Protein backbone atom coordinates (compact mmCIF):
# COMPACT_ATOMS: atom_id res chain seq x y z
CA UNK A 1 0.00 0.00 0.00
CA UNK A 2 1.28 3.49 -0.73
CA UNK A 3 0.56 4.78 2.80
CA UNK A 4 -1.37 7.82 1.64
CA UNK A 5 -2.90 10.29 4.06
CA UNK A 6 -5.42 8.47 6.26
CA UNK A 7 -8.20 11.07 6.29
CA UNK A 8 -11.55 11.23 4.52
CA UNK A 9 -10.74 14.66 3.07
CA UNK A 10 -7.42 13.46 1.67
CA UNK A 11 -9.03 10.40 0.12
CA UNK A 12 -11.89 12.26 -1.53
CA UNK A 13 -9.58 14.99 -2.86
CA UNK A 14 -7.35 12.23 -4.30
CA UNK A 15 -10.39 10.60 -5.89
CA UNK A 16 -11.62 13.94 -7.25
CA UNK A 17 -8.25 14.72 -8.85
CA UNK A 18 -7.98 11.28 -10.45
CA UNK A 19 -11.51 11.36 -11.85
CA UNK A 20 -10.94 14.88 -13.17
CA UNK A 21 -7.69 13.98 -14.95
CA UNK A 22 -9.33 10.86 -16.39
CA UNK A 23 -12.08 13.00 -17.91
CA UNK A 24 -9.58 15.59 -19.18
CA UNK A 25 -7.51 12.92 -20.91
CA UNK A 26 -10.63 11.32 -22.37
CA UNK A 27 -11.74 14.66 -23.80
CA UNK A 28 -8.24 15.30 -25.14
CA UNK A 29 -8.27 12.03 -27.08
CA UNK A 30 -11.78 12.71 -28.37
CA UNK A 31 -10.66 16.14 -29.56
CA UNK A 32 -7.65 14.66 -31.38
CA UNK A 33 -9.87 12.00 -32.96
CA UNK A 34 -12.33 14.66 -34.11
CA UNK A 35 -9.65 16.84 -35.71
CA UNK A 36 -7.89 14.04 -37.62
CA UNK A 37 -9.30 12.13 -40.57
CA UNK A 38 -8.18 8.58 -39.78
CA UNK A 39 -7.33 6.43 -36.77
CA UNK A 40 -3.64 6.03 -37.58
CA UNK A 41 -3.03 9.77 -37.48
CA UNK A 42 -5.11 10.12 -34.32
CA UNK A 43 -3.09 7.39 -32.58
CA UNK A 44 0.21 8.98 -33.60
CA UNK A 45 -0.75 12.48 -32.48
CA UNK A 46 -2.39 11.19 -29.29
CA UNK A 47 0.65 9.10 -28.39
CA UNK A 48 3.06 11.99 -28.87
CA UNK A 49 0.76 14.33 -26.95
CA UNK A 50 0.54 11.92 -23.98
CA UNK A 51 4.32 11.48 -23.99
CA UNK A 52 4.82 15.23 -23.91
CA UNK A 53 2.23 15.67 -21.16
CA UNK A 54 3.84 12.95 -19.03
CA UNK A 55 7.35 14.38 -19.40
CA UNK A 56 6.24 17.96 -18.71
CA UNK A 57 3.90 17.11 -15.82
CA UNK A 58 6.60 17.96 -13.27
CA UNK A 59 7.61 14.52 -12.02
CA UNK A 60 10.03 13.34 -14.71
CA UNK A 61 11.27 16.87 -15.35
CA UNK A 62 10.66 19.27 -12.42
CA UNK A 63 9.35 22.73 -13.22
CA UNK A 64 12.59 24.38 -12.11
CA UNK A 65 14.63 22.29 -14.58
CA UNK A 66 12.49 22.77 -17.69
CA UNK A 67 14.00 24.73 -20.57
CA UNK A 68 12.62 28.25 -20.72
CA UNK A 69 11.67 27.93 -24.39
CA UNK A 70 9.35 24.97 -23.79
CA UNK A 71 8.32 25.62 -20.19
CA UNK A 72 5.02 27.15 -21.38
CA UNK A 73 3.71 23.62 -22.10
CA UNK A 74 2.97 23.11 -18.41
CA UNK A 75 0.28 25.81 -18.59
CA UNK A 76 -1.60 23.68 -21.16
CA UNK A 77 -0.97 20.38 -19.41
CA UNK A 78 -3.79 19.01 -17.24
CA UNK A 79 -1.42 16.37 -15.86
CA UNK A 80 0.77 19.14 -14.44
CA UNK A 81 -2.12 20.58 -12.46
CA UNK A 82 -3.27 17.14 -11.32
CA UNK A 83 0.24 16.09 -10.26
CA UNK A 84 0.88 19.21 -8.21
CA UNK A 85 -2.59 19.03 -6.68
CA UNK A 86 -2.00 15.42 -5.66
CA UNK A 87 1.42 16.30 -4.24
CA UNK A 88 -0.05 19.23 -2.33
CA UNK A 89 -2.92 17.10 -1.05
CA UNK A 90 -0.56 14.41 0.16
CA UNK A 91 2.35 16.40 1.59
CA UNK A 92 0.68 19.57 2.89
CA UNK A 93 1.46 19.87 6.62
CA UNK A 94 3.01 16.41 6.69
CA UNK A 95 5.65 15.93 9.37
CA UNK A 96 8.35 13.60 8.03
CA UNK A 97 11.16 12.22 10.15
CA UNK A 98 14.68 12.39 8.80
CA UNK A 99 16.66 9.16 8.96
CA UNK A 100 19.82 10.48 7.27
CA UNK A 101 21.53 13.37 9.05
CA UNK A 102 24.65 15.02 7.67
CA UNK A 103 27.32 14.59 9.00
CA UNK A 104 26.84 11.09 10.37
CA UNK A 105 28.80 7.89 10.58
CA UNK A 106 31.99 6.87 12.38
CA UNK A 107 33.41 9.75 14.39
CA UNK A 108 30.16 11.72 14.47
CA UNK A 109 28.30 9.75 17.14
CA UNK A 110 28.51 12.55 19.73
CA UNK A 111 27.71 15.43 17.36
CA UNK A 112 24.84 17.54 18.63
CA UNK A 113 21.71 17.98 16.55
CA UNK A 114 22.37 21.72 16.24
CA UNK A 115 25.45 20.86 14.13
CA UNK A 116 23.65 18.42 11.83
CA UNK A 117 21.11 18.82 9.05
CA UNK A 118 18.71 16.49 7.31
CA UNK A 119 19.66 15.40 3.79
CA UNK A 120 16.17 16.17 2.38
CA UNK A 121 16.04 19.45 0.39
CA UNK A 122 14.23 22.17 2.31
CA UNK A 123 15.31 21.00 5.74
CA UNK A 124 16.44 23.35 8.51
CA UNK A 125 19.64 22.89 10.49
CA UNK A 126 19.07 21.54 13.99
CA UNK A 127 15.88 19.64 13.16
CA UNK A 128 15.60 15.92 12.62
CA UNK A 129 12.33 16.33 10.73
CA UNK A 130 10.96 18.16 7.69
CA UNK A 131 7.53 19.79 7.74
CA UNK A 132 6.64 19.08 4.10
CA UNK A 133 8.21 17.68 0.97
CA UNK A 134 9.53 20.98 -0.35
CA UNK A 135 11.24 19.68 -3.50
CA UNK A 136 8.05 19.52 -5.57
CA UNK A 137 5.30 21.13 -3.56
CA UNK A 138 6.89 24.25 -2.06
CA UNK A 139 5.95 26.69 -4.86
CA UNK A 140 2.31 25.62 -4.81
CA UNK A 141 1.77 24.97 -1.12
CA UNK A 142 3.29 28.25 0.00
CA UNK A 143 1.19 30.17 -2.51
CA UNK A 144 -1.91 28.30 -1.39
CA UNK A 145 -2.77 27.19 -4.92
CA UNK A 146 -2.57 23.42 -4.55
CA UNK A 147 -6.32 23.16 -4.15
CA UNK A 148 -6.92 25.90 -6.72
CA UNK A 149 -5.48 23.62 -9.39
CA UNK A 150 -8.68 21.58 -9.22
CA UNK A 151 -10.44 24.04 -11.50
Describe the structure.
This protein folds into two domains: 8-94 and 134-150, no CATH class; 95-131, no CATH class. A two-stranded antiparallel ribbon has the order 1-4. Strands 2-3 form a two-stranded antiparallel sheet. Helices cover 48% and strands 5% of the residues. The protein has 151 residues and is mostly helical. The protein is elongated and about 70 Å long. Keywords: Membrane, Transmembrane, Transmembrane helix, Transport. The chain crosses the membrane at residues 12-32, 44-63. Its main location: membrane.
Task: Summarize the helices and strands and which ones pair or pack.
Layout: H1 8-35, H2 39-55, H3 73-76, H4 78-91, E1 96-97, E2 101-102, E3 117-118, E4 129-130, H5 134-142
Antiparallel strand pairs: 1-4, 2-3
Helix pairs in contact: 1-2, 1-4, 4-5
Summed up:
The chain is mainly alpha-helical and 151 residues long. Helix content is 48%, strand content 5%. The two termini are 29 Å apart.
Amino acid sequence: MPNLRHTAGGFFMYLLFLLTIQQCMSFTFKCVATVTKDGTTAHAIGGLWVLMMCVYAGFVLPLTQMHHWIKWIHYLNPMFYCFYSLMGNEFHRRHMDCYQLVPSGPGYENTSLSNQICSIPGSIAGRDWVLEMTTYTRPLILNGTWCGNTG
